[in-house]
Prior knowledge:
The protein is of the alpha/beta class. 20% of the residues lie in helices and 28% in strands. The strands form six sheets. A five-stranded parallel β-sheet has the order 5-12-6-7-8. Strands 9-10-11 form a three-stranded antiparallel β-sheet, with no helix packed on it. It has a two-stranded antiparallel ribbon with strand order 1-2.
Amino acid sequence: DDHSLRxxxxxxxxxxxxxxxxxxxxxxxxxxxxxxxxxxxxxxxxGLNLPEVPKEFVVIGGGYIGSELASAYANLGxxxxxxxxxxxxxxxxxxxxxxxxxxxxxxxxxxVITNAMAKEAEDTGKGVKVTYTADGKEQTIAADYVMVTVxxxxxxxxxxxxxxxVETTDRGLIKVDAQGRTNKPNxxxxxxxxxxxxxxxxxxxxxxxxxxxxxGKASAVDYKAMPAVCFTDPELATT
Length: 239
């Protein structure tokens, strides 16, 4: 019910009761068709834990995470290719700002291919073959690793929200009001599992507001000047 939580582990289960609950289960990388995560087909976490600097590195998706890690590996000496499905990388930034990053990428030998649709990746044992379409043609790239950064999925599918009756969107995001409160008045949600930008400082802010609301303070989120930073080279910032 909406006042108890059952935690299931491998060999045990425990039930906890609560007066108020804040759900903050975060998100996970999206795995797309044809790109099953493995040794050479990576999510963003895998991209941070490579045992070596690759000579050839392919990034699927030119958003925040993809552009940041592409920039980092280019600085380490890798030849990086970004495959972006839309007409531009970093769509949430102004064009003039994006151009600064593109100019920097060009100087460091980063190849950016826009309007490119990733089809599949094949682990060849010593590397990976990435197939994509661009300009109406199917093409391939041979690389040491490919990293998929096409977004994240909220970790709400295994929480039993439907049993309690907590409302979610079609994407699995939990619907909340300005206090982070769900349609169940004692259950709150914050961070990547609610609508809006998936930013760490946004989640912290939402957690503060939710805690204040639970304690009886008049508090509400205000996203009018929410900062966002992209740690490329050069770095970008916006609100």
